[in-house]
Design a protein that fits this description.
Blueprint (H helix, E strand, L loop, with lengths): L2 E8 L1 H5 L3 H10 L3 E8 L3 H7 L9 H8 L4 E9 L1 H9 L12 H5 L8 E3 L3 H11 L11
Antiparallel strand pairs: 1-3, 1-4, 2-3
Helix pairs in contact: 3-4
The protein binds adenosine-3',5'-cyclic-monophosphate (CMP).
The site of adenosine-3',5'-cyclic-monophosphate has 9 residues, from helix 4.
Length: 143
């Protein structure tokens, strides 16, 4: 087991439906600690930069339009095996495939509007965290 950080987004559909507290509680109840968080409203170009890895995909336009359609909550979460643990709490990308009790199974309405995003590796967690947070916005969890 190792202490890791991962990057998390509560997407516009989650914020719009007043699910921020419920979703952050699920992370905290399952031993992930919030070490940075804020609400932002991404511009189209910020969304395009964040999801640049998907720029050739047919759904890129739909995805980036959606991500800047309203405010989101971005967070950095810390815990044992945080990247994988967070992905387990979120459930499969497509809510139809997500296990019972996961965030996407319980709240997400479609593949495109799937309520939450989480990093898929430690390397991407570091890249995605630094896309939205400066070092001074991240607390030291042991303090
Ligand atoms: P996320 O974990 O944020 O990473 C990329 C997102 O693209 C993914 O969640 C989905 O919401 C979205 N996505 C993936 N495949 C499709 C698709 N076929 N159509 C629309 N959106 C998709």
């Amino acid at each position: 087991m190792s202490l890791e950080q991962t990057f998390s987004i509560i997407k516009p559909d989650g914020v719009r439906r007043n699910l921020v507290g419920k979703i952050l509680s699920r992370f905290e109840e399952k031993e992930l600690r919030i070490v940075a968080t804020k609400m932002i409203h991404m511009s189209k170009s910020e969304a395009e930069g964040f999801y640049a890895v998907h720029s050739e995909r047919p759904f890129f336009g739909e995805l980036t339009e959606f991500m800047c359609s309203g405010p989101v909550v971005v967070s950095i979460l810390e815990g044992e095996n945080a990247v994988l643990h967070h992905r387990e709490i979120m459930g499969a990308t497509n809510p139809d495939d997500a296990d019972e009790g996961t965030i996407r199974r319980d709240f997400a309405e479609s593949l495109g509007e799937n309520t939450v995003h989480g990093s898929d590796s430690q390397e991407n967690a570091a890249i995605e965290s630094s896309y939205f947070f400066s070092q001074t916005e991240i607390v030291n969890s042991s303090s």
